[in-house]
Specification:
By secondary structure, the chain is α+β, with helices and mostly antiparallel strands. Helices cover 31% and strands 15% of the residues. The chain has 17 helices and 15 strands. Strands 5-4-15-14-13-12-11 form a 7-stranded antiparallel sheet, with helices on both faces. The protein is globular and about 55 Å long. GO terms for molecular function: 6-aminohexanoate-dimer hydrolase activity. Keywords: Hydrolase, Signal.
Length: 444
């Protein structure tokens, strides 16, 4: 699914630094960061060193970097609740004994089933937490993780931006039917956004001419990466000085009209976040604290990555702990309630659960593997599964980051990983098969 997650410039960065020639030769393809001896020594040997040239997307260096992003990039912290709320744990030993269907390379089911330990290893798991109602029923940490250690969440960040956008609508501060240029006059010059509605941008169905050919120095994703400060500029080229200057330059895709096709493109999330910032008057970070963390009793370390202008990476900068995300997941599957108070509007949760146009999703480039075999849609930066008996909405990030919310069966699953591949049908199917096994067990 090459277009599916936030790759912004991650693949381009990996290619640009010649990452393939710097792979650490591991004695075990599933080895942990400690087993690989990454970043050990004073200084670490050159072939064990993690820096910005290999941290974002280069295996196996991401086995270390996803647990330590703050040591490599500028960040902004997000505060915790004044009073922590501990989630009770009632561990269901049956989950550890489950068998998971292992798919073939294209994501199709096979007759092979593996135990949970093998599944966790083969999907490069760093943390897996299963929540049923308000209780943790399964928790496993690997690769040096623990329940209070922050982990890079990649495009899961998008889903928080979409949630804040929907909540702004619920609060009467924005209207999904209005064109985004009403809220952001700066975008009147942009064909991709000037006459696109807020709902279309939320659902990524506005038609945008944006190339994600990572090896092409003239592509949109390369230009975007330079603006964010993740790529070196090409000699002789002129670039926007900030994301706010860059977004108005994006044109409309001449092949489609707004609303026709779901096309996953990261700059759309920047516009969602910008609209929400403008109408609420607060940043993503402040919304995280005010709307969520202050009410969820969080007590771990949470932070977001920043670009060269101290602006949030709205498409992929969140880092959070498994247990804080478990609190969030519990709230999402409980109609927006947590600790006796309504945190997120129940109507917002219902909209996410209902999803959006299955047809627009099927006509887009993300409809492959299990997402082609089943009905899916994309609503407000969340992936929505419509398969009967398996309905859910999920936040997804490259290299295996998940917040899977099944409100019908009251189960949330948080997975943090450092997979070697950014996104493909094999890993998606493997993880979804695990979620089906876990939820099937808990439902019975």
């Amino acid at each position: 699914m090459s277009f599916r997650y936030t790759k912004f410039v991650l693949a381009a960065l990996a290619m640009a630094v010649g990452c393939l020639s710097t792979h650490v030769a591991a004695q075990d393809e599933f080895a942990s960061a400690a087993e690989l001896k990454l970043m050990e020594g004073f200084p670490p040997p050159a072939d064990k060193r993690v820096d910005r040239s290999n941290a974002l997307m280069t295996p196996p260096f991401n086995r270390w970097s996803y647990l330590n992003m703050r040591l490599l990039y500028p960040t902004a912290g997000i505060g915790n609740a004044s009073q922590p709320i501990k989630m009770p744990a009632e561990i269901d030993k049956g989950i550890a004994a489950l068998k998971v269907v292992k798919p073939d390379a294209k994501g199709a089911p096979t007759k092979t089933k593996v135990d949970m330990e093998t599944y966790l290893k083969e999907t490069y798991s760093d943390a897996l937490v299963v929540v049923q109602g308000d209780k943790i029923v399964y928790e496993k940490h690997l690769n040096g993780m623990d329940g209070n250690h922050p982990h890079q969440m990649m495009s899961v960040t998008k889903s928080f931006a979409g949630l804040f956008g929907l909540q702004a609508v619920a609060d009467g501060k924005a209207d999904e039917g209005e064109v985004v240029s009403k809220y952001l006059p700066e975008l009147k010059a942009s064909g991709a956004f000037s006459d696109a509605t807020f709902k279309q941008v939320l659902n990524m169905t506005n038609a945008m001419d944006f190339s994600e050919k990572y090896a092409d120095p003239e592509s949109g994703i390369q230009h975007y990466g330079v603006v964010l400060g993740l790529m070196n500029p090409q000699p002789g080229k002129t670039y926007a000085n900030s994301i706010y200057e860059y977004l108005p330059t994006l044109g409309k895709d001449p092949k489609h009209e707004h609303g026709d096709v779901f096309h996953y493109q990261t700059p759309k999330t920047d516009v969602v976040n910008w609209v929400t910032n403008r109408v609420t008057g607060v940043s993503f970070q402040k919304n995280m604290f005010d709307k969520l963390w202050s009410k969820l009793g969080t007590d771990g370390e949470t932070y977001v990555l920043l670009d060269t202008n101290a602006t949030l990476f709205a498409g992929g900068g969140l880092n959070a702990t498994p247990r804080d995300l478990a609190r969030f997941g519990s709230m999402m599957i409980s109609g927006g309630k947590f600790g006796g108070q309504q945190v997120i509007s129940k109507n917002v949760i219902s909209q996410l659960s209902d999803g959006a146009s299955v047809e627009a999703f099927a006509n887009g480039p993300s409809s492959t593997g299990m997402m082609a075999a089943e009905d899916w849609s994309y609503r407000a930066q969340w992936w929505v599964r419509h398969q009967k008996g398996k309905e859910a909405f999920t936040a997804l990030g490259i290299h295996g980051q998940w917040i899977y919310c099944d409100i019908h069966r009251g189960v949330a699953i948080i997975k943090q990983s450092s997979q070697p591949t950014s996104a493909d049908d094999y890993y998606d199917a493997y993880n979804l098969n695990a979620w089906d096994a876990i939820i099937g067990h808990l439902s019975n």
